[in-house]
Amino acid sequence: MTTQLLKVTNLVKNFELRLNNGARRRKRIVQAVTNVSFAVEKGQTLGLVGESGSGKTTVGRCILRLIEPTSGTVEFEGEDLGSLKFEEMRALRRKMQIVFQDPFASLDPKMTVGASISEPLTVQNVPGDHTDKVIELLELVGLAADHAQRYPHEFSGGQRQRIGVARALALNPALIVLDEPVSALDVSIQAGVVNLFEDLQQRLGMSYIFIAHDLSVIRHIADRVAVMYLGKIVEIGDQQDVYEKPSHPYTKALLSAVPVPDPKSERARQRIMLEGDVPSPVNPPSGCRFRTRCWKAQDVCAQEEPVLLQRASGQFSACHFPET
Prior knowledge:
The chain is of the alpha/beta class and 324 residues long. The protein has helices at 56-63, 86-92, 113-123, 131-140, 157-169, 187-204, 215-221, 239-244, 249-256, 263-268, 299-303, and strands spanning 4-21, 24-41, 45-49, 71-76, 79-80, 96-99, 175-179, 207-212, 224-229, 232-238, 309-310, 316-317. Strands 6-7-8-3-9-10-12-11 form an 8-stranded mixed sheet, sandwiched between helices. A 4-stranded antiparallel sheet has the order 2-1-4-5. A hairpin with a 5-residue loop joins β11 and β12. α3 (113-123) packs parallel to α5 (157-169) and α4 (131-140) crosses α5. It starts with a strand and ends in a 7-residue tail after the last strand. The mean pLDDT is 90.
């Protein structure tokens, strides 16, 4: 019996830019996501990490068909989502939900908390009075029953994010895309929200795609990690393999920037400072997209695009000169 919940194969998403150039209008293509492939098992958390603009959020939204991919396939429980009609996809969304990055913008300020949480039940035509369900969900995420009558502006950022989680849980989903769910929160609040996600996963058996740029958060919660750079996955593998023996130079550079809590070790370790800026996705570099900032780049890196290959340390990486 298969335990695979989600399979993404060669996902591509391009956006069109139409620019005015005097009397002419010319079209340019932004390559946001290019040939991304991965799988998520039932009850597993996949961490999707990378710098801003690497395509992480676009991948998450393409999976849920909040935006339509340019090409590639997304299979959920063995069913190709791209082949589903609107009503079929709407019904399947009961099993796939998202928690957005900004808890201040993702809740309607004119709706009470109870109305926001019960809205998915109403949209999906779940019969009956939803009051008891709303109270159950509020208590599940650590809030009180009487909070259902309040409005979003009466809550802190961490509490609002918990409300967003309660709304995502309303339909008992099998998969939740967490789009940088703690990046807008104070550091003191982040740990509580991450612990909430872990607790809910243990109790309800859900799978997560946890999108973040903070590698320390991903290390705490993820089972597998996929590192993205300029729209492509450059390394993917089990969390322990990726963090302890990074294979791709970009992954090694990201990990070198994570602070170490021991001051003596922090002073002794060597950080990798990447030079230059991330290239434009409108005109990405030939060959390896990371080569313009890589200290190991050689002529072959500009001529041939590296493919994801399994390394001796266990994970897959796309590099002509891997670290391990």
